[in-house]
Design a protein that fits this description.
The protein is an alpha/beta fold. 38% of the residues lie in helices and 16% in strands.
Length: 580
């Protein structure tokens, strides 16, 4: 069967069971857009290529399958770079298709030419310039395999226009051909038995163990195994920003998020542990604070599918390369078979419970006439949200409050930009998450600064009938920057004020086809959230006027030790906590 390269591309995506492609056509990729008209694949037309990438990420994070995006050459590809880097940092499976100028003019500075492979090499797991139409099916098979196995990540295929226009005999490579084409790609999934036994020995003898669960738990679908291990060990669990939902917040052993803006008990449990069981986590700087002073008395068991992470930041006493779910399941089996008594952990739990009681998450109560408390807004949305609502966040104060004050009970209900910290992530990622799980309510918690970066994608949501809900915590500032300037720059507020009324978010949202509301009174928060939940035929945007004086606590200053964590002033010695 003779097909054009473009037809072979779309047929290959169909063979990989692609449901949706997020993208925008342009000259070099245009041949690939013609066969989409005859395809079962849904195409979502974005308003900016960065939005296509973030939508693919949101789709991938809630489904576990690679998100697919397709854009043209030159500026189309460069606009995608931020999303590629974001996916690379957070290990999100994604397949990006980019058009390229025709083969004869590559290297001549042709119109909309860019070295896409060179530009994206450092922010993709794999990328390739496909120079023959007959190579397209194998390249697509490789892309989906590489994106979704081992440590997941983004893969990019760059396709010259004339390759898409040329014809080839259709052939879909089988598993044998696929394996032969990637002879060096053999991710280790099973942990070394001797290392697993050594890890279990340390776990059994530890008096102050902590399970440090990272985003790898979600990638490996290891949530149930994690819970079984934690209960068997009777050990507390901290869930990183990327792992929220991997362990239920309602569980007695859950301490919440550690790190720069984590829960006090989670921060100090890691700091005072005698054993850290790191599962799919990478000891990033936001968790460790100053590395030299991080958990000085702890031994470390570190499990990760990426061998490059083991020993990269913190030396592991027991490093284990492997898939988190398979390794944890083997740990549980060995633990059960050992029959050894575990160390007495009653004193450890008493210490943890004391931390939880003395230093809970806290904000001062709403006073008459004050602007809204952003934490209270998140709690109101949380309490009214249907079960299994997916929460998506932008980046900044609102992201930290969302992680702190929402209650995550199951995997795949939290989508955010962790490693790269991409402002503007929330709106397009929420759209992708809703496309991936249309049965779930999707709320995006965004800041006014973030919202202004990618709000145009709400036009996409309206046109495509994707009913996401967006809560803007509008404090008229770049909030996290303002917090740092107040605490560390003597309140010198340089270039951080945005204005509460410019733009008019309600009018802007309505112009984009959304239902829109503004909330300034605490009495109106609940009723307007209920209205938003009842609207399911178009996107909803709510402009919540929040207090710019609110800060995110706890806080570990950049470069400081986790032992120097700053709690809310009312919880410090001499502080006056008002009971809510």
């Amino acid at each position: 069967m003779q097909l054009t390269g473009a037809q072979a591309l779309i047929k290959s995506l169909e063979m990989e069971r692609t449901e949706v492609v997020f993208g925008m056509p342009g000259g070099a990729i245009l041949p690939a857009y013609d066969p989409i008209l005859d395809s079962s694949i849904r195409h979502v037309l974005v308003r900016h290529e960065q939005g296509a990438g973030h939508m693919a990420e949101g789709y991938a994070q809630v489904t576990g399958r690679p998100g697919v995006c397709m854009v043209t050459s030159g500026p189309g590809a460069t606009n995608l770079v931020t999303a590629l880097c974001d996916a690379y940092m957070d290990s999100v499976p994604m397949v990006a298709i980019t058009g390229q100028v025709a083969r004869p003019v590559i290297g001549t500075d042709a119109f909309q030419e860019g070295d896409t492979v060179g530009i994206t090499r450092s922010v993709t797991k794999h990328n390739e310039l496909v120079m023959r139409p007959e190579d397209i099916p194998l390249a697509v098979r490789q892309a989906f395999l590489l994106a979704s196995t081992g440590r997941p990540g983004p893969v990019l295929l760059d396709l010259p226009k004339d390759v898409l226009q040329s014809t080839t005999e259709w052939h879909w490579p089988d598993d044998t051909e696929l394996a032969a084409s990637l002879p060096g790609y053999k991710p280790t999934t099973k942990g070394h038995p001797r290392m697993v036994r050594e890890a279990v020995r340390l776990m059994t003898g530890a008096s102050r163990p902590v399970v440090y669960a990272g985003g790898g738990i979600l990638k490996a679908r290891a949530s149930e195994a994690l819970r079984e291990l934690a209960e068997l060990l009777d050990a507390p669990v901290v869930t990183t920003l990327m792992a929220r939902g991997a362990f239920p917040d309602s569980h007695r052993a859950c301490l919440g998020m550690p790190g720069m803006h984590g829960n006090y008990a989670a921060i100090m449990a890691l700091q005072e542990a005698d054993l850290i069981i790191a599962l799919g986590a990478r000891f990033d700087d936001r968790v460790t604070g100053r590395v030299a002073s991080f958990a000085p008395g702890a031994q470390v068991v570190h499990v990760d599918i990426d061998p490059a992470e083991l020993g990269k930041i913190r030396r592991a006493d027991v490093p284990i390369v492997g898939d988190c779910r398979l390794v944890i399941e083997e740990m549980v089996r060995v633990l059960r078979a050992s029959g050894e008594d575990q160390a007495d952990r009653r004193a450890w739990w008493a210490t943890i419970d004391d931390w939880r009681q003395r230093f809970p998450l806290y904000y001062e109560p709403q006073l008459p006439g004050d602007l809204l408390k952003p934490q209270a807004v998140i709690e109101a949305i949380r309490d009214a949200a249907p079960e299994a609502t997916t929460l998506v966040a932008g980046v900044g104060q609102h992201q930290m409050w969302a992680s702190q004050y929402w209650r995550f009970e199951q995997p795949g209900t939290w989508v955010n930009s962790g490693g790269l910290g991409t402002m503007g992530f929330a709106v397009p990622a929420a759209i992708g998450a809703k496309v991936g799980r249309p049965d779930r309510t999707v709320w995006a918690i965004d800041g006014d600064g973030c919202f202004q970066m990618t709000a145009q994608e709400l036009v996409t949501a309206s046109a495509e009938r994707i009913p996401v809900k967006v809560a803007i915590l509008n404090n008229a500032y770049l909030g996290m920057v303002r917090q740092w300037q107040e605490m560390f720059y003597e309140e010198r507020y340089s270039e951080v004020y945005l204005s509460p009324d410019l733009p008019d978010y309600v009018k802007w949202a309505e112009a984009m086809g959304c239902a829109a509301f503004r909330v300034e009174s605490p009495d109106d928060v609940g009723p307007v959230v209920d209205k938003a939940n009842a609207i399911d035929d178009r996107p909803v945007v709510i402009d919540f006027r929040t207090d710019s004086r609110e800060k995110v606590f706890p806080m570990v200053p950049a470069g400081a030790s986790n032992s120097d964590v700053i709690v809310h002033p009312a919880l410090r010695p001499g502080g006056e906590k008002v009971v809510q």
